[in-house]
Specification:
DNA_primase_DnaB-bd; DnaG_primase; about 0% strand; DNA_helicase_N/primase_C
Length: about 240
């Protein structure tokens, strides 16, 4: 993993070396085991010819900041869940009430971006029921729902008052859900990497690190695509 990071930077320049150190420390700060962190620090100090004590001081500071973010995250956890659920339901509401291109945008989502089980079930129902007929009236799908919980959810989305609907709104919800899903996928990998490293499976840990880089690349590409789409819509 460390070698994978180092190989991405030009160590012949001071700027490249500092960037490599910064990226390595960022990675190490995600590991919860102090022992694993210290072992990595020894390796990094030797490979980059940097004082071990200096690296450890910087890592301790990053760990302190990370703990602060975790504490704040726990305070905000409930606040974060409900907006996520509301965003999923907003996507469902837009699919139900919009037609044509606006609806098609959100039907291009993958069902795995929905974290709520009922929301995912409703999305699957809509995607299957509207396949090849994006202009169809979705109210006919209600009769196909057997579970009472889903019938109530679908009915509430179907009959609630609409405040707005347009292609731009659908586009915004689409990108927000996609980015949240990528962030979720990225967030669970560092702990898995740490566990694999502790078990001595460095090859698999390196593979997960490459997966993190791939997902981060997808997230950056998604952000750029979102900006480009915003510019296109502003020009229309």
């Amino acid at each position: 993993t460390i070698d994978s990071i180092i190989s991405r930077f030009d160590l012949t320049s001071a700027q490249g070396k500092l960037a490599a150190i910064d990226r390595i420390l960022e990675f190490l700060s995600t590991l919860s085991s102090r022992i694993v962190q210290e072992e990595y620090i020894k390796v990094v100090a030797e490979k980059l010819s940097v004082e071990e004590e200096r690296l450890m001081r910087e890592l301790i500071e990053r760990n302190r900041r990370a703990r602060g973010r975790i504490s704040q995250g726990r305070v905000e956890q409930k606040k974060q869940f409900f907006p996520y659920d509301r965003l999923e339901r907003e996507a469902l509401r837009l699919i139900i009430h919009d037609v044509g291109e606006a609806r098609k945008i959100l039907l291009n989502l993958e069902e795995d971006v929905f974290q709520s089980g009922p929301n995912k079930d409703i999305f699957r129902l809509l995607k299957d029921g509207l396949k090849g007929s994006e202009e169809a009236d979705v109210s006919q799908l209600l009769s196909a729902i057997e579970r009472e919980e889903l019938r109530r959810l679908f009915s509430s989305l179907l009959f609630e008052e609409r405040e707005y609907e347009n292609e731009k709104t659908c586009q915004e919800v689409f990108y927000m859900l996609k980015e949240l899903d990528l962030k979720r996928q990225i967030s669970i990998l560092p702990r898995k990497m740490e566990k694999l490293s502790q078990q001595g499976d460095q090859e698999e840990a390196d593979r997960l690190f490459e997966e993190i880089l791939r997902l981060e690349g997808q997230r950056r590409a998604l952000q750029e695509e979102r900006i480009n789409q915003d510019h296109l819509m502003e020009g229309q």
